[in-house]
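User: Structure please.
Assistant: Input sequence and predicted structure:
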Amino acid sequence: MSILKELDSENLILSMPEEMDDDFFSKVKLEVLNAHKVNNIHRILLNFSTVRSLSSVGLSVLFSIKIFLKSIGLEVAAVNVNEGIMGVFKAVGFDQIFEKEYVAQDSVVERSYEEKAKDLSEELSYQRELYNRVTTELEKKIESTKDELKNATEQLRLYDKSNSIGELAAGVAHEFNNIIGGIMGYAQLAQMKKTDEIIDKALDNIVKLSKRVEGITSGLLNFSRKKPVKVAPINIVKMIEGVLEFTQKQLENCDIKVIAELDDVEEFLADENLLSQVILNLVINASHAMENGGELKIKLFREGGFVLCVVSDTGTGIQKKHLEKIFQPFFTTKGALGGGNKAGTGLGLSVSRSIIEIHRGTLEVESTLGKGTTFTVKIPFKSVKEEDEEARKKRKVGTGRISKNAKILIVDDEEIIRSLISATLSDKGHDLLEGSNGEDGVKLFKSHKPDLVFLDILMPRKNGLDAYLEIIEEDPSAKIVFITGQAGEYLEVVLDNIVNNDNVYLLRKPFELDELVNVVNVALGK
């Protein structure tokens, strides 16, 4: 064991006794020097370890910077970083450390980063592919769900529509059966009794019943928006007064007070029958909403280029959730369909809005539950002085005596219609020809060159429009009267031809004999 083990080597020389011999002193001095060397070596190693740890951290940061620069494509900058690090190590004399430590570590770290980057890239690629697959599947599912929802909605709509149409058809069938029963009964009564009084009474009632049928079909066409508007000058004040007079008894029975504030609106062009139907529907709806009495107010006035009719009641009002639905076909809060006490089919307001829209107007509603409802009709004011296309079409039908000895061709697939026209016109001294389809009609026209042709539109083998085109190709001046109960696009084509051809006319089924006489007179009078 060293004699200096327990001594402080820094202070040893100062504490040595002076009387010690030279040999002893030399040994002690040697050990002190050795101790100093060992101590200094420990210090150097400790400092080197610290420097190395710090340099390792610095190198890691530099490696990260270098890899980042390479990852974004800055290879030159990465090389500059490498050279800068080498210069630092050489400046402090650590060339070998740089070669052994940095270069080796740089290679390992760079390889490690590249492998991690590769793994990360593969993982990102896999996640991207998985995302695309999931997205594609979700899009397919969404489209499939949308299609299923669309199909389900359509099936529900068709189901509701079929139920509604079934209810409507049942009501129409009931009305038709009553009318047909009346017509058959009166006809058979006339055949049995054969007295002038009975025959006259039977015929009068048959005509009335027939007009009821026309009213039903007219209402259905109004609902489907396929019936053309019969525009003519109307006195809307008198029309509204007529509606109130018609409903007076019903309103009195319900203890409803009527207040009419009708400005003196001058005559304008509109369909009086259709507009009166709208006002009647609104008045009846108001009376149904005031079963225990109330007040009905009707205001009529001009506002700019429009005529406004406001119908207000003090009834039960309409729930907010129902306001957007009340104009939908078959929606009702009345009867079996809506749970109310009054009968209702849900067609009145839908038809009314259709009529107003045909007139290019609007029908709006405001309501407060428990206080009442207000409907506002707003239609354009079209002066009777303005040129109106529909009125121009109607002016082609006039009155007067029928020219004698004309050759007239009647083309209709309904024998009863051909017989009716033929019987009416034959008494006037005309030669009558008949055809049951468009093809026969064209042949008869080419062979007989008639003065006037009656053409039905819907017929077998060749429809009336195709027959018309062939006839005017044969003779552009041919005079044609279309006879039809058809509505929709066929009728629109006919109306277009009436406007563009002064020799084309229209006779709507059902028609009265006076109308038949008038159209023949106008056509042959030219």
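DSSP finds 16 helices and twelve strands in the chain.
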